[in-house]
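Dear colleague,

As promised, here are the two records you asked about, laid out in our usual form so they can be pasted straight into your sheet.

NAME FIELD: protein one
SEQUENCE, THEN STRUCTURE:
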Amino acid sequence: MKRLIGLMLAAAVLGACSTPGAAPLVRRARVYPATGQFPDQQERDSHACTVWAQQENAKASGFGGALETIGGAVTGAGTPGYGWNQEGADRAYTVCMNSRGYSVYW
């Protein structure tokens, strides 16, 4: 029994240390300010949303993403998974930019 628990713990630790590969980049979208943002603010928001979209994509894959998904399911909280692919990255970027007051068109 102790050996099984040790083996499971070792597998979990090794799984957490692995990297799932490069995150898909957010493609270029047509982004229009809907609430009068200036170009420099749009650039900062776009950068922040690109980073956030890649983080959300990373949550959808790997050990850490599985734990967060389970935690969200248990508590009823958590964010919906966007999927570890280009479409997921684009969708997460769109959600972020929409929340900051921009219209996004692909």
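NAME FIELD: protein two
SEQUENCE, THEN STRUCTURE:
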Amino acid sequence: MYDIAACTEKCGPFSFCCIAGIGAHFAISGLNDFKLLVVMKRILTTFMILAMGLTMLAPAINAQSNDSNARAAQRQKNVESWKEDMAKFKEKIHEDHQLNELADSIASIQAIAAIRNKDFVLEADNVTFRSGNTVLVNSTTNFISVKGNRAVVQISPSNYASGPNGVGGVTVQGTISDYQIKTDKKDRVYLSMNVNGIGISAQIELFISPGSSYAQATVYPNFNSNTVWIQGTVVPYDSSNVFEGSSL
């Protein structure tokens, strides 16, 4: 006789072998056992419900799987696009850096050549006075210029008052003497010169680093201690746009 309990325990109540065995048992017994009929009905009903549920869930599961795969593919595509953009950005930065280095190198060569030719202007962007006060200034009206044996020092820190020179400060000019240029082992260029004229008797020292056109100059008056420090960019005389005020 078919043992339903043993089959259920071994294969599970919803296995095909268990269901088939129960069916065969009913066929042999002539469906005399009402309890077994009820069990069989419950098993078949449960099996049909599970089958229908799986059938209904299958499209949703497939859709979720496809949607998950699509999102993963889009994320990967976004990552690859970001990597490409970063590579292009780094390449552009590298190119810009090289161009800036080239521009700085050209400007440095022009500045040093202008200094050697006594044909330059230091266009100041800041001036420091003996008191230690540093003032940001307009490079158009604050400068040291050299043209042959003539030098001009103009300091105009005020944008409001006209000053003796008419542009907010003082302008002095004089004749250059003892013009000396030295280069150290690190290719740093040093310039020293004396300037004497009406309103000025001073020694001026200028320092410029290799690969740069930015310079620092110090004006040491011979008859007082009102030392002035000037920083700015050195350009060829004819390339400058400075405005010279009225000299003392």
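A couple of things worth noting about protein two: The longest helix spans residues 34-116. The CA atoms of residues 126 and 248 lie 23 Å apart.

Best,
R.
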